Amino acid sequence: MELQVQTLGKFKFVEEGEGEPLILLHGLFGALSNFKDLFDYFKSKYRVIIPMLPLFELGLDTGVGSLAKYVQKFIESREFDKVHLMGNSLGGHIGLIYTLANKDRVKTLTLTGSSGLFENGMGETYPKRGDYEFIRKKTELTFYDPNIATKELVDEIYDIVNNRLKAIKIIALAKSAIRNNLSDELREITVPTCLIWGKNDTITPPMVAEEFKQLLPNSELHWIDKCGHAPMMEVPAEFNEILSEFLSKHSAS
């Protein structure tokens, strides 16, 4: 069954389940399908929510900080008191910025392949419009197993970068993420933090996870072997098991 998108004012999101809110933040090329296994696994225990981040709707304020403010307004509009935040790639970066500004509203933070320190991203030359093979190879680099980069996924990214305005937004967001380095601020985040990292991540390599572990005072680091930049897509069963155990330690029974 496909995930059903709901609308509340200016916000679009997917939501199912009951219990403590677990908010999932997608990355730069994130789609609802990225979180399908995670969503289905956790909706029996948590109120699982995926806000649709307005990556291409921001005006002159296109940047990771503006997306964090959007998440803040979304959480305020839902009147959530304490949330579990989980973010992949740019979504992790957004989660970090939100947590820095709203420490009292975050119960736990989970990062996987997060930017915020360093990322070997698609680069400024990424949107080679019309070059399908280039896009396919770049998409495959996201994963340890290139077969995870299905034609449907490659087509989706190809359509984005072939839209001139969307391509400009992607570059602006990628540059914003690089500029917005959080190394000097991470020690201020004391909420329980779970780092789940692919050992074969080439976009945010293992050294990034190790630095996050060093800088985040209340963090734990879990490695997944033979896995790239999006563990919740590539090895969902192992990812969900790690996250479930972490969340259970910090959730009401």
TrEMBL record:
Alphabetic keyword roster: Hydrolase
Cellular-component GO terms for this entry: membrane
Protein name: Alpha/beta hydrolase
Domain AB hydrolase-1: 22-241
GO MF terms, alphabetically ordered: hydrolase activity
Pfam families recorded: Abhydrolase_6
InterPro entries per record: AB_hydrolase_1, AB_hydrolase_fold, AB_hydrolase_sf
